[in-house]
Amino acid sequence: MTGPVLAHEMGLSRRLLPAPAIPRPGLLVGGMVGLMAVAVLGLVGAGIVQEHAAPAQRLLAPGTIGHPLGTDQLGRDVLARTLAGFRWSLAVVLPATLIAGLAGTGIGLAAAASLGWTRVILERATETAAGFPFLVLAAPVIAIVGRGYWPLLIVLAILASAPFALAVFDATWGGRGRMPVFQALYAVPAALPVVGAFIVADLVVTEACLSFLGVGAPEVAPSWGNMLADARQNVTTAPWILYAPAAALVLTVLSANWFGEGLGQLWRVKAR
Amino acid sequence: MSTAVAEVLRLQELRVQFPDASGRSVVALDGISLAVERGEAVGIVGEPGSGKTLVALSVLGMVPPPGQVSGSIRLLGHELVGMVEPEWWRVRGRDVAMVFPDARRSLNPIRTVGSQIAEAVDRHYEGYPYAMTRRWVRERTLEALAWAGVSRPRQRFGHYPHQLTGDLRQRVMLALAGANRPPLFIADEPTVGISDPVQAQVMLHLLRRVLGAAALILTTRDPGVAAAVCQRVIVIHAGRIVETGPTDRVMTSPRHPYTAELLELTPRTGATDVGRARPGCAFASRCPNAMEQCRRLRPPLELLEDRPVACWNPWGS
Amino acid sequence: MSVATLLFILVRLSASPAALLAGAGASHAEVRSAHVAYGLDGPILQQYVTFVTRALRLDFGQSPAHQAAALEVVRLRLPATLMLTAAALAATALVGVSLGVWLGLRADRPEHGWAFRLLLTGQSLPALIVGLVLVQVVGLTSAMGASAPLSFTLSALTLTWWLTPRAARLTAAPVAGAVRQTWVLTAKAMGATSRDVLWGHVLPNSLLAALALVGVQVAFLLSAAVVVEWLFGWPGVGNLLAVSMQARDFPVVEAAIFAIAFLVFATYAMVDLVLAAVDPRLRRRATPP
């Protein structure tokens, strides 16, 4: 149970210990493959949507010619809509993440650079903000403002700044005091993609949940959340509406998480 | 024969090897034989990496994997090599106990000192099951604390490790080791990690207290430490015994060049690579007395005048 | 307090262009009513002061939909959510924590790798998806059509499924760390059995840290509960929030957010208290001899 560590404690020559395990790149590779699939599907999706723009018969079961995954209650092709969903969701989440990353980095650096009590307060505030789930804060704002692409984008970007700020703060502040510049210069760019990956995963889920609840994407937008809401409504009449968007959502989230975790392990970045 | 009763530990050709990834083995201990009797304090002296810690670990059955132990270890007549883990649970702490030096981390910080000693008492209770009451365990624990020289044991029992001074913690570690009155104590590098020389003296003093009917094996890199506590000393290098004998005589007139180097009678000229298996004497590359023969043939441990030495060209000859 | 401010800032930021964006879905009347409900038609400082004073008095206004004080409406739904959360936490403690301990003890072995990946995958399944799959499996036709025990069970199941991988991973790390401690060596050298080590030294030392880490997850648990409660029709605060958002019942929305935020901070505070109480190093230090 305590093999290699015991020897170390006892001061044994390191050469007698088994060689350290080779880091396994499985997570990272898997994540990257998944993300590439997502990117491809998103790009391809544009093409297919154009082909099947014409509305078809309602509630066709999967396997029908021309509609491999069936159609929903308004006659829209499920496959086409799901693929369009890649573009829609990523069009919201990616810019939001980028903006949040920039804003968060700025805030984090500012917090780390400030003096004494200001810094402590800022750290606390960032910690608290980062620890709050996006959904609970985003939902009412959008409820007031109205559904749409821009409200979603802006609100998510603002909320996602907090985790970025916290990560950047941690990267420059290393828990015990300000780190030397060259160390921070390495730590910050290392932390950003890792945190970014997790944020992307989080935001994709949040966007889907918001749309599902009716406070996210506009009704006609091909957001997976909307499709899931449709699936909910037609659970007995058209159960197939669930599968494609659910699979797409899970694929995206999984890939982003795997990528973030894999990269984090490789670069030894820890998310708080 | 009285030796059968007086002898506590006998190691016979103890070998410990670590197979590496390619299948070859690094031999860390290469045929160690020694015996310890009741009331004896034996010091095993050698540089870091010489294998002395492994001797201690072998006797406790805590050689880290993938280490393989072969040879014979007889503790109170019982053969220990070949035992499986659950069998070791009865031996550790009862027949042999390790005395840990005061490292702040050697005691669990969220448990009281008393409860940790009681755990050891509890584990090795051998008597009528219903006679082991909490009170009985507590009494034994308090006894152990008093034996180690802990002042006000009743109060200390309920204290946490961070509430004790370094000196007290050392005594607690000793009390822990001695809680079940094992016949054999092992102190592995007891003064390493104690930066205060006064506390180091306290530690050595405590170890002397250990003796009575018990036996002590003390491993160290500092011959002075061995001299302070042990009657007999064994010098070990690259997993082999190179010299052994009464402490005062080995210290005043060492026979093996390595012993001389340890005693700082000759300058150090580097470290020995344990990994490579080499014919001949392992010390040859550093030895001021090295001859052609030393590199080819391994010197056996033989009586030279009054004590066993393993050298073709001993010091002072 | 900080959440109230944050919320206010968010709302304020979006309120001005609200009229422009209102075209996306809300009617002009609805936006107007939102402005009035939030007192958004006065100078900004006055608005903030009003908001804060009302919040401090826990006055969130009247709910048009329920014809009652908003906070009261929320308060009535609170026990339902607490019950659900407690059930999910209990189930997770049983399954997730045990899994985490098992995993942590095997940190050096090959099993750890794929188990870890499996957990990460499980964690990536959003509660929404799990819930919807359950809905399909069970064949729930309408949200309100489910009976109370079924709704509760499915909600609790979904939340547990969602929380368990996280809890397992968060427990595994402290456990793996505790096993490596020097005092474990000491105990082992004194003859402690594997069981002694586990129950006497590893678990007591690691479960505290695990508790703290899991406590942080409660915020996200409540967030997931919003979706789950709405999905299965469990009448808790989450459900109320979702429904009220769709109905534009802003006082209730405000009150519900406040309640959730309160629960989150209460959890953090409780975790801190428990940690301080249990770890002797954090207690009042006894005078050294």
What can be said about this structure in brief?
With 317 residues, chain B is of the alpha/beta class. Chain B contains 12 helices and 12 strands. Chain B is globular, with a radius of gyration of 21 Å.
- Uncertain segments of chain B are none
Radius of gyration of chain A, in Å, reads: 23 Å
- The ordered string of helix (H) and strand (E) elements of chain B is HEEEHEEHEHHHHEHEHEEHHHEE
Treating each run of at least 4 consecutive H or I residues as one helix, how many helices of chain A?
A: 9
Protein described:
- The complex is a heterotrimer of chains A (272), B (317) and C (289).
- Chain A is mostly helical.
- Chain A is 69% helix and 0% strand.
- Chain A is built from 9 helices and no strands.
- In chain A, helix 3 packs antiparallel against helix 4 (116-130), helix 3 (78-113) packs across helix 6 (149-173) and helix 5 (134-145) crosses helix 7.
- Chain A is elongated and about 65 Å long.
- In chain B, strands 6-7-8-3-9-10 form a 6-stranded mixed sheet, sandwiched between helices. Chain B has a 4-stranded antiparallel sheet with strand order 2-1-4-5. In chain B, strands 11-12 form a two-stranded antiparallel ribbon.
- Chain B has helices spanning 2-6, 52-60, 85-91, 113-123, 134-147, 153-157, 166-178, 197-210, 223-229, 247-252, 257-262, 292-296; strands at 7-19, 25-37, 41-45, 68-75, 78-79, 96-99, 184-188, 215-220, 232-237, 240-246, 302-304, 307-309.
- In chain B, a hairpin with a 2-residue loop joins strand 4 and strand 5 (78-79).
- Chain B starts with a helix and ends in an 8-residue tail after the last strand.
- Chain B has 12 helices and 12 strands.
- In chain B, helix 4 (113-123) packs across helix 5.
- In chain B, 32% of the residues lie in helices and 24% in strands.
- The model of chain B has no long low-confidence stretch (mean pLDDT 84).
- Chain C has helices at residues 2-15, 18-21, 28-37, 44-56, 70-105, 111-123, 127-138, 148-179, 182-189, 194-232, 237-246, 250-278, and strands spanning 62-63, 68-69.
- Chain C is globular and about 70 Å long.
- Chain C is built from 12 helices and 2 strands; from the N terminus they run ααααββαααααααα.
- Residues 11-28 and 284-289 of chain C have low confidence and may be disordered.
- Chain C is an all-alpha fold and 289 residues long.
- The two termini of chain C are 45 Å apart.
- Chain C has a two-stranded antiparallel ribbon with strand order 1-2.
- Chains in contact: A-B, A-C, B-C.
- The interface between A and C is large, with 59 and 68 residues.
